[in-house]
């Protein structure tokens, strides 16, 4: 097609070149007729012939335009004959060969450069150990007049276990009056070092490995514990600017606890001690904060919203295998305050079954919930079990008999008291056939 177009174009060019003088000669008169007159019939005949020739040539050219494939063929020929291409191909082949042969060495060089930037794993590990020693040596100082007990944390490191120690003991007054004047400088320094450690672990060459060294995994476990300490410290130590609606720095506490929950799956430890426990810490903090807010009638709506979130957190803890008895006790207490009594009764039943040694208080709480549900016979059975456990243990503390007639702690059991108009409750009997009066006698 290309050569054909070239031939047609050449023919047109030659025709015009050769025909132009003839046309000019004819138009100028050419051979003079006798007497000097021009031969006008010859010139007149030549003009239409030339026009027809040009039109035919133009039609021929327009009937055979260059196609896309012709253009592509020309570009391919140009590319294949380009010297740059034949230089580039060997270079690319050489690069592929070098990568296949030296890829391991190249990867090692990159990792070494990263180690120079962020420090070796041993250096990061030494940093983590220094932080651990620092928080273990940090002995808390509390506000004057605060009475210490068995659950009071003595150092910042013990804050990691504080919810697990406090919730089984009591749900009342969980917040600590920390001496912030002495604590603030050390806490700020600890936060900075924790942030540096977290960043070094994050950008370490081992962080992207499917099976990193065990030493590196232990570093993540130490960072997880540190984040728990920070979160619980902010969450259970009364804030320097505490207000009735914000007794602690809840936002900062949740920030650290959420980071701990995110890191937990990377520690390689069992879920119940990492991710499940992190959800329990978040639930304990929100739940106890919500219970604190219920004391103020103006804040009860906010308290109920906060406690409703706790139930979901504790459910997440259960799903990740963290299921201690005291967690069900906290869950039941919050559900009871929210008016979800059947769920509270089930949770207290679980707490009573799991608690070791057996707790008369869990059976007593279960009896109160069953009474609200008008399941009077079952309630008396649980109350009788609580009384029996307390008698067998012979230990001071929670006494179901005296608590059952205390208007402040057992208002739900009023239906059993003498003078009650609820005849169904007065006639109810436990599984052993005892009435309320016989059980507490």
What does this 3D model show about the protein?
The protein is an all-alpha fold. It folds into four domains: 2-77; 82-118; 121-333, no CATH class; 357-441. Helix content is 67%, strand content 0%. The chain contains 18 helices and no strands. The protein has helices at residues 2-27, 40-62, 68-80, 83-118, 121-137, 162-169, 180-202, 214-236, 250-263, 275-293, 300-319, 325-337, 341-354, 360-372, 376-393, 400-403, 423-427, 436-440. Helix 1 (2-27) packs antiparallel against helix 2 (40-62), helix 5 (121-137) runs antiparallel to helix 7 (180-202) and helix 14 runs antiparallel to helix 15 (376-393).
Distance between the amino and carboxyl termini: 118 Å
Helix content: 55-70%
**How many DSSP H or I helices?**
18
Q: Flag low-confidence runs.
A: 1-9, 22-27, 30-40, 111-119
Mean pLDDT: 81
Rg computed from alpha carbons, rounded to a whole number of angstroms: 46 Å
- Strand content is under 5%
Report the strand count.
0
Give the overall shape, derived from the CA principal axes. Answer: elongated
Query: Biggest β-sheet, characterized?
Result: none
The oligomeric status of these chains comes to: single chain
**Overall structural domain count:** 4
Question: Structural class of the secondary structure composition?
Answer: mainly alpha
Return the string of H and E elements.
Answer: HHHHHHHHHHHHHHHHHH
């Amino acid at each position: 097609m290309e050569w054909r177009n070239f031939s047609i174009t050449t023919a047109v060019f030659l025709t015009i070149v050769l025909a132009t003088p003839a046309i000019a000669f004819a138009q100028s008169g050419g051979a003079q007729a006798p007497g000097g007159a021009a031969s006008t019939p010859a010139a007149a005949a030549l003009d239409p012939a030339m026009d027809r020739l040009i039109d035919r040539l133009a039609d021929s050219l327009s009937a055979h335009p260059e196609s896309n494939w012709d253009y592509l063929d020309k570009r391919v020929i140009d590319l294949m004959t380009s010297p740059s291409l034949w230089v580039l191909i060997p270079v690319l082949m050489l690069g592929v060969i070098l990568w296949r042969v030296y890829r391991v060495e190249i990867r090692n060089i990159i990792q070494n450069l990263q180690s120079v930037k962020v420090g070796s794993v041993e250096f990061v590990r030494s940093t983590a150990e220094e932080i651990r020693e620092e928080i273990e040596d940090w002995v808390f100082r509390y506000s004057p007049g605060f009475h210490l007990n068995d659950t009071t944390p003595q150092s910042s490191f013990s804050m990691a276990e504080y919810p697990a120690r406090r919730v089984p003991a009591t749900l009342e007054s969980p917040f600590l009056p920390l001496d912030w004047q002495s604590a603030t400088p050390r806490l700020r320094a600890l936060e900075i070092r924790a942030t540096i450690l977290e960043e070094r672990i994050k950008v370490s060459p081992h962080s992207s490995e499917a099976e990193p060294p065990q030493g590196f995994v232990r570093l993540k476990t130490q960072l997880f514990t540190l984040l728990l300490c920070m979160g619980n410290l902010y969450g259970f130590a009364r804030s320097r600017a505490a207000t009735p609606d914000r007794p602690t720095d809840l936002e900062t506490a949740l920030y650290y606890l959420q980071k701990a929950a995110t890191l937990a799956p990377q520690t390689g430890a069992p879920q119940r001690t990492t991710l499940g426990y992190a959800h329990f810490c978040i639930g304990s903090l929100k739940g106890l904060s919500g219970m604190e807010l219920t004391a103020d009638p103006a804040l009860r709506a906010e308290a109920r919203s906060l406690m409703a979130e706790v139930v979901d957190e504790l459910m997440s803890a259960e799903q990740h295998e963290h299921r201690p008895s005291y967690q069900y006790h906290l869950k039941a207490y919050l559900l009871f305050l929210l008016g979800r009594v059947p769920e509270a009764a089930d949770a207290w039943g679980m707490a009573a079954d799991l608690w070791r040694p057996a707790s008369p208080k869990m059976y007593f709480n279960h009896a109160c919930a069953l009474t609200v549900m008008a399941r009077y016979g079952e309630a008396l059975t649980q109350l009788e079990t609580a009384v029996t456990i307390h008698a067998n243990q012979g230990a001071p503390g929670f006494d179901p008999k005296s608590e059952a007639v205390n208007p402040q702690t057992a208002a739900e059991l009023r239906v059993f008291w003498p003078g009650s108009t609820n005849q169904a409750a007065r006639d109810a009997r436990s599984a052993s056939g005892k009435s309320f009066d016989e059980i507490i006698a």
